[in-house]
Specification:
The complex is a heterodimer of chains A (about 350) and B (about 450). Chain A has a domain at about 55-260. Chain A is globular. In chain A, helix 3 crosses helix 11. Chain A contains 14 helices and four strands. Chain A is mostly helical and about 350 residues long. Chain A starts with 12 loop residues before the first helix and ends in a 5-residue tail after the last helix. Chain A is about 70% helix and about 0% strand. Chain B is of the alpha/beta class and about 450 residues long. Chain B folds into two domains: about 30-150 and about 290-380, Rossmann fold; about 155-285 and about 395-415, Rossmann fold (3-Layer(aba) Sandwich). Helices cover about 45% and strands about 15% of the residues of chain B. In chain B, strands 5, 6, 7, 8, 9, 12, 13 and 14 form an eight-stranded mixed sheet that branches. A two-stranded parallel sheet of chain B has the order 1-2. Chain B has a two-stranded parallel ribbon with strand order 3-4. In chain B, helix 9 (about 220-230) packs across helix 10 (about 240-250). Residues about 20-30 of chain B have low confidence and may be disordered. The chains are: A mainly alpha (about 350), B alpha/beta (about 450). At the A-B interface, helix 3, strand 4, helix 12, helix 13 and helix 14 of A face helix 1, helix 2, strand 2, helix 3 and helix 4 of B.
Chain lengths: ~350, ~450
């Protein structure tokens, strides 16, 4: 009754085209942003920032990038970790090799380099589809792993192969405290999420979806598959590359190629699938599920055990955490194969009728 | 209906979260908190578990002995599964608990690299005995890192010394070929500078054979060993990688007598299942080895295990990696004891004060013997410039069922290692735009 478009008349084309057509959604998003930018910094402690919110935001961004490729354009990719690594190492090289390089420019240039590599490894998508493409993108993963392990130029000839950054500054402000790091990530995520939301409802976004739903039909109505697929790879890799640079710079501070291993690629793919393919919101749900839930379980289990007077060993906690986590993945995929984002939209549909359902 | 189930699940989760927050803090006052980052699951579980057990057991022994001048120790574990991002999360989780963490021992080179960037801001020292950054032995640049009792370069140098001694001198190595099988990560690569330096000095050739983590697939590597027939193989391996390498060596017919592990590649979990077939395999041990007959192991059995307080299985007490946990815990508590001498006996020290203790550690043989480390360790003495404290090592050999000492005490060559440490630390300081600590800072 309260949450519906009836009565909200669109009198101009502009208002008809806005991102959130329902006034309540606009207010909701503004409230969410206000919450993230104002309320969270007031409430969260250092642990929440460093161990939960920052990884959640960065991996949300990466999942968002992957969702454009997998969810919107239908190109399954297992090379996400590789594109993150390209973003991280490229940004690192821009930062250490060019004197006075601003951090934001370095991170964005990392994204640009990831775009290049992403497009390169996207070329096979013109000929191969589905699972076969997933296997082809694995090549990116192994190639990039090999590159950063073997070619010491990329790691500034570090003897151990591990590189690190510190003393980060943005516009003269240090990025040191957890709050500053959080704000930097949040800024990136908010801007990219809005851009992506806009992009997927533009002409190019509709081309991606047409390719995803049926590429032959899309080609027949005049969509160029090469252009659509490669732009999806480009946009996706750019966002993923920026996320990789943030993961390395802001979260880890010091990293090696193992930080962007095949496990990371799978983790991100699971985020997209569990969160909801083809949904911007779903990327956030998926990231929250995969990042926050294991940490929560890891801390909740000993606490629950102590309530009933049982001391659970560290190893058992780790095992039980994996079991519950795995079971929850199966359970969610059974009750809602379209991901957590679908639950969200079902909730919104119900809200339209509330409180007077038929 | 569906929503209802989800809502009830969410409620349950929220209730659990509430329970978590309101769970009573179990810490009593006046405890010295030692966080323990464990690897009880994951690719290194067989090796990292005894370390965590030894660490916890020695802390219990310290409490049974009456604490550190009356201050009881408290250990809380957090599982990292050897993953860097989980390790960082654990660090953030534990660093402020129970009045603040005293010292971290992450038992992972990846986590060490990540934490090295964080500990100066948090003012918490980190002990990385035998792993982490080798150049962090330079206390002038790495104020908070303590690679006590040795690092990769000490292990690498002493294992090569042992090989040279067996051959009859360094000049006998000229023209020989030594293969290095290493974990393809910072952990493995950290060994390479010292072997490369020694190979330049003595004219032996190196065959570098990286093995991708976790190291269960080594067929290609050992095929290369078979083709090239190196005179010796040095292994810088960890976790499941070590037994896999030895099994592959057996399959290729490479003699175990010519295989030498570094500090992390020669413990019971690596060899027990292979048993007699691994006979002749050696590994370099910095300070301690397998010490089931040491006084400290017996004391742990009597005061901890016999009171059914033991953390792990009883027969593990005294094994190599268990002893490594014991030695790690001993260094952690003795640093606190040293700090108490300065900042007040019987008081809980902060991480910052404990750092002073680790920097001014002076474990004489008499002190070590009194702690039960007779014939286990040699004296350790640190300073502002030297955060390592000792460079002693021995080599032990697997006789098919247990380890026996195969060499006398070896000492890494300071003339070679010190300039390497300094050079690498300077490079790090240059990249980070850090300045070397002035001598006045050493008193703080």
């Amino acid at each position: 009754m309260f949450y519906r478009e009836n009565g909200q008349f669109k009198t101009t084309y502009r208002s008809d085209l806005q991102i959130f057509p329902i006034a309540q959604d606009r207010i909701g998003v503004l409230l969410l942003l206000a919450f993230a930018f104002i309320a969270v910094p007031l409430m969260a402690d250092e642990y929440t920032f460093r161990a939960i919110l920052i990884p959640f935001l960065i991996l949300s961004l990466a999942a968002l990038g992957l969702n454009i490729l997998v969810g919107y354009c239908g190109q399954v990719s297992l090379g996400t970790g590789a594109f993150m690594a390209v973003g991280a190492y490229a940004a690192y090289n821009f930062l250490v090799r060019i004197e006075g390089m601003p951090l934001l420019v370095a991170i964005l240039m990392g994204g640009v380099c990831a775009t290049g590599v992403g497009v390169l490894f996207g070329i096979p998508s013109l000929r191969i589809k589905g699972l076969y493409l997933a296997v082809a993108t694995l090549a990116a993963q192994f190639f990039v792993d090999w590159t950063f392990l073997r070619i010491s130029w990329f790691t500034n000839n570090s003897s151990s192969g591990s590189v690190s950054v510190s003393n980060l500054h943005v516009f003269g402000l240090p990025i040191e405290s957890p709050l500053q790091r959080y704000m930097l990530c949040l800024g990136f995520v908010a801007v990219f999420a809005l851009l992506a939301k806009n992009l997927v409802r533009s002409a190019i976004g509709r081309e991606w979806m047409a390719i995803r739903d049926m590429d032959v039909a899309a080609a027949v109505i005049g969509i160029r598959p090469m252009y659509a697929k490669l732009t999806a790879f480009a946009v996706s890799s750019f966002i993923v590359g920026v996320a990789g640079a943030l993961w390395a710079f802001v979260y880890l501070g010091s990293w090696e190629p193992a930080a962007f291993s095949i496990d990371r690629s799978f983790q991100l793919l699971f985020m997209v699938i569990i969160g909801g393919l083809g949904s911007i919101m779903g990327s956030f749900f998926g990231a929250a599920f995969i990042v926050v839930l294991p940490i929560f379980l890891n801390q909740a289990l000993p606490a629950l055990g102590s309530l009933v007077g049982v001391v659970i060993s560290t190893a058992l906690v780790a095992h039980v955490e994996l079991m519950i986590f795995g079971a929850l993945i199966v359970w969610f995929l059974i009750v809602e194969p379209h991901g957590l984002a679908k639950l969200w939209s079902i909730g919104k549909q119900k809200l339209r009728l509330w409180p007077f359902p038929h | 209906m569906k929503l209802k189930t989800i809502a009830s699940a969410a409620l349950f989760v929220a209730a659990a979260a509430g329970a978590l927050i309101t769970a009573p803090a179990s810490a009593q006052d006046k405890v010295q908190f030692f966080p323990s980052l464990t690897g009880r699951t994951g690719p290194v579980a067989p090796n990292a578990t005894p370390f965590a057990n030894g660490y916890a057991d020695y802390m219990k022994l310290v409490n049974a002995r009456g604490g550190i001048n009356g201050v009881k120790t408290l250990v809380e574990e957090c599982e990292t599964a050897y993953a860097t991002d989980r390790g960082v999360e654990c660090y953030e989780r534990l660093k402020g608990k129970h009045g603040g963490a005293t010292v971290f021992q992450p038992l992972s080179t990846g986590i060490t690299f990540a934490l090295t960037e964080k500990i100066p801001a948090d003012k918490i020292p980190m002990i990385t005995s035998g792993y982490g950054r080798s150049d962090s032995a330079d206390g002038g640049v790495f104020k908070w890192n303590f690679p006590l009792i040795g690092h990769y370069w000490v292990a690498g140098d002493t294992v090569l010394q042992h090989i040279a001694k067996k051959e009859g001198g360094w000049d006998k190595l000229r023209g020989k070929k030594i293969a290095v099988v290493y974990h393809d990560s910072p952990f493995g690569k950290e060994l390479l500078p010292i072997v490369e330096e020694r190979s330049k000095m003595h004219g032996f050739t190196l065959q570098l054979l990286p093995v991708p983590a976790p190291g269960v697939e080594q067929k290609a590597v050992w095929l290369q060993v078979r083709q090239q027939r190196p005179d010796f193989v040095v292994m810088q391996t960890w976790g499941v990688m070590t037994p896999t390498a030895i099994k592959e060596a057996i399959a290729t017919g490479y003699p175990r007598e010519k295989m030498f592990g570094t500090w992390w590649s020669g413990a019971e979990p690596d060899l027990r299942d292979i048993g007699a077939a691994a006979k002749g395999y050696s590994a370099v041990m910095m300070q301690h080895g397998a010490e089931p007959n040491s006084p400290v192991a017996k004391e742990i059995l009597a005061k901890v295990h016999d009171k059914s307080q033991g953390t792990g299985p009883r027969d593990e007490v005294g094994q190599v990696l268990y002893m490594r946990g014991v030695v790690g815990a001993m260094l952690a508590t003795e640093g606190v004891r040293a700090a108490q001498e300065r900042f007040g006996k019987g008081k809980v020290v902060t991480g910052e004060q404990a750092r002073w203790g680790y920097e001014n550690l002076n474990l004489t043989q008499a002190k070590l013997d009194a702690l039960g480390f007779k014939d286990v360790m040699r004296p350790v003495s640190t300073s502002c410039a030297d955060h390592m404290g000792s460079a002693w090592a021995r080599v032990h050999t697997w006789d098919g069922a247990k380890f026996t000492w195969a060499s006398d005490w070896l000492q890494a060559d300071d003339q070679i290692i010190r300039p390497m440490v300094r050079g690498s630390a300077e490079k790090y300081a240059g990249e980070k735009k850090l300045t070397r600590r002035p001598p006045s800072d050493c008193q703080s």
